[in-house]
Structures are given as C-alpha cells and as structure tokens.
Design a protein that fits this description.
Blueprint (H helix, E strand, L loop, with lengths): L7 H10 L3 E4 L7 E7 L5 E7 L1
Antiparallel strand pairs: 1-2, 2-3
Length: 51
C-alpha cells in the first residue's frame, strides 16, 4: 500500500498509538527513509518515504 497524502512522521506516531511495534525506526538514506514494524497481528510492514 502506498500512502502519498500523509506526512511520514505523522503516520509513524499514529501507528505507534494504534499498537504497531517498530522493529527499525525511520532511518535516513540518500534515496529513501524506511522503517520496519509489525502490525497488531504480527505481520511485517515496511514504510518508506522516497526522495
């Protein structure tokens, strides 16, 4: 799923409030800013802000 109309920081804060556990906090790379987390059912989710 691609989210294009929400600020990535806002998305991370909201997901934490909803019970998602971040495995890797957002990290800055020249090409993107990825984060990895598990949803409440344990599925792995990747969020990435492209640059």
């Amino acid at each position: 799923m691609r989210l294009t109309r929400i600020k990535p920081q806002d998305a991370c804060e909201e997901l934490r409030e909803r019970g998602f556990a971040f495995l890797v906090e957002p990290r800055d790379y020249p090409w993107c800013r990825p984060a990895y987390l598990r949803d409440p059912d344990g599925r792995l989710v990747e969020l990435s802000e492209m640059r």
